[in-house]
Amino acid sequence: MKDFYKKILDNNKEWVETSLAKDPNYFQDLAKGQTPPLLWIGCSDSRVPANEIIGAKPGEVFVHRNIANMVVHSDMNMLSVLDYAVNVLKVKHVLVCGHYGCGGVKAAMGNDSIGIIDNWIRHIKDVYRLHDEYLNSIADETERFNAFVEVNVKEQVYDLAKTSIVQAAWKNGQDLTLHGWVYGLNSGFVTDLNVNISSEKDLDEVYQLRF
Asked: Which of 185, 190, 160 has its CA nearest to residue 103?
């Protein structure tokens, strides 16, 4: 434990030295403020690093993460991040990114009790319930699991579009587009689910074509 802790402190020093060697003003410039064009809503899984996946630098992505990249309307943490990103930072894109092999989605497919996380998993189970006919028609369990990951991302984008924060931004003519991706842990590539929504009209059209 002590060796690991010392290692991460040493890693920080090495990172600072490397960054300054490339640009002596790196941290001074970074401290002046942030103007990220993107809010990333992703899974807490440690294998899904937002910045690295899209090749972004610090200051270019505002990030919110939770189990299974959920947009829950009673989640004040998520809503606070979204409000700040949209109304203060004026991001132009909000991206919900799930990933194949998501443990939260997998747990929602079963009935085992895990602990307090069961209460969070219930939101994901609700997504399955909404699409059980489609998902249950997929015989192969792995394919069904992957399809559920994709369906979950799409539903989170739709829920995002229905928040008062996003609705008000569109009403005020703000340039704001929502997207849904799924990241492949075993490939590194992302799949664009083609739920790109930039207005209430887009939401209605895309929702009708979701399957």
From this structure: 185
The sign one gets for the Cα dihedral 159, 164, 177, 52 is negative
CA 118 to chain centre: 20
Is residue 196 within 8 Å of residue 177, measured between CB atoms?
yes
Q: What tens digit of pLDDT does each residue of 162-206 get?
A: 999 999 999 999 999 999 999 999 999 999 999 999 988 877 776
pLDDT digits (tens, 9 = 90+) for 38-96: 999 999 999 999 999 999 989 999 999 999 999 999 999 999 999 999 999 999 999 99
- Asked whether the beta carbons of 10 and 18 are under 8 A apart, the reply is no
The whole-model pTM stands at 0.92
Per-residue 3-state assignment (H helix, E strand, C coil) for 104-171: HHHHHCCCCCCCCCHHHHHHHHHHHHHCHHHHHCCCCHHHHHHHHHHHHHHHHHHHHHCCHHHHHHHH
* CA quadruple 78, 82, 83, 89: dihedral, nearest 10: 140
Residues that are catalytic = 43, 45, 47, 99, 102
Helix (H, G, I), strand (E, B) or coil at 38: strand
* Tokens (6 digits) for 93: 């894109």
